[in-house]
Amino acid sequence: xxxxxxxxxxxxxxxxxxxxxxxxxxxxxxxxxxxxxxxxxxxxxxxxxxxxxxxxxxxxxxxxxxxxxxxxxxxxxxxxxxxxxxxxxxxxxxxxxxxxxxxxxxxxxxxxxxxx
Length: 116
Hints:
Helix content is 64%, strand content 0%. By secondary structure, the chain is mainly α.
């Protein structure tokens, strides 16, 4: 009579990293890495559950539709510089940093008011 084989136990370093789980679920691994991961997932319920959760999250995001934001927030965000400003005097740098901080604080406060 054949005995049921106990599932293999893996040490913490043998499990798939979160990046590998995401890459596996997204089909982004090269063939050799994919085959190693697939073998591990077939034997490891913990990693199989993580891959399943990643695939469910991916599907939920894909099916969630387009996100929207208030026009006022978009306007504030578009005012943030896309590159480093030119070098300026020490006092001016502080004023720029303070101005950016106020824009961010105002944006967050505006979003909080809209949620209430």
